[in-house]
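Final report, Chapter 2: Outcomes

The project's central promise was a pipeline that accepts a single protein chain and returns its three-dimensional structure in a standardized token representation, suitable for archiving and comparison. That pipeline is now operational. To close this chapter, we reproduce one record exactly as it appears in the project archive, with the input sequence first and the structure output second.
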Amino acid sequence: MYEKWLDTIANCKLFEGISKDELRSILPCLNVKTVEYKKGEYITVAGKPFNQIGLVLDGSIVLSKETVSGNRVIISVLGKSEIFGEMAAYSGQKSWPVTVTAQTNCTIMFFAQDKIVGCCESVCNSHRTLILNMLKVVSNRALLLNKKVEYLSIKSLRSRICTYLLEEYKKNGQKTFQLKLNRNELADFINVSRPSLSRELSKMRDEGLIDFHSSAIKIKDFEALKACSE
């Protein structure tokens, strides 16, 4: 059942330091199940009962939240080997805090959060590693959410765009890269309207800061981009 996805599961931060043989033993203890979703389908909706953590086995998903005024704000986009739901898992909250949507056709593995910190029926030697990994995952997610707050605190639209592009440049290590977000999703992520985002990107291209085609971005003037982000 798990063999097909074993490499993907092993690459997940939650299972870091756990060998594939150990994974074969520990996965049955977690009572996992896999579910396939079509592009655009809701995986779960904010406010629904919450009792499990998800792991993306294939495809990508979008985590978003609606503001009081009804606007969608994208929290993050997650891909293969990444998990979601861990922030709320041990908070005592009984409902999903965000809406999770399939960005592409995807396959998700679910397991109950109490199986992570609870007693392992098989007394797996790797269970302590699993608990420590979960603490790291939760801590790193908190840092990412703090970064999201930083984006929203930047007043200038251009500064938000430049900051985002510089972060993506750091992740990719090169000046030409593919964005994980389409134009609508990027607008939601930095909390601006789609037309405003498109106009500003076009201005930045005309001024020689960047070039773009579809989801591909090329940074042409790194120093100018950096100056605009400060």
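Archive annotation: The chain has two domains: 3-152, 154-229.
This record, like all others produced under the grant, will remain available to the consortium after the project formally closes.
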